[in-house]
Write a structure and sequence with these properties.
116 residues; 4 strands
């Protein structure tokens, strides 16, 4: 069983796999539409500044289920590897983005996964 687990881990880090970084934002009630739009634009601009980002997409919650718990904005960032994400997080452009974000952010939820 140990060999099988190792083989699966190696498979997950092969170049054919993709590492997804899902980020959900809940903004403070007093955040203005302009402030939120600025954050959405700034998040999108990261893909032009950080070359480890393979792809980026975003959207706002439109679910009829009403289960978003106040999280309104979803961002999906794809990397080729976990290492690429680990290089993205401390990148100066990402750090600058988080400084802009924090004053209007009420909560954040992050889930990373290997595409299967």
């Amino acid at each position: 069983m140990g060999m099988y687990s190792l083989a699966k881990e190696t498979e997950s880090t092969s170049s054919t796999q993709q590492y997804r970084h899902v980020v959900l934002f809940k903004f403070k009630e007093d955040a203005t539409a302009e402030q939120i739009d600025e954050i959405v634009k700034a998040f999108g601009d990261l893909s032009k500044q950080i070359d480890t980002i393979v792809s980026y997409e975003h959207g706002t919650d439109v679910s009829p289920e009403k289960l978003s718990k106040g999280f309104t904005h979803c961002f999906l960032v794809t990397f080729a590897s976990k290492t690429d994400l680990e290089n993205y997080l401390p990148h100066p452009a990402h750090q600058e983005f988080t400084v802009k974000l924090k004053p209007i952010l009420a909560d954040v939820l992050v889930v990373d996964y290997w595409v299967k």
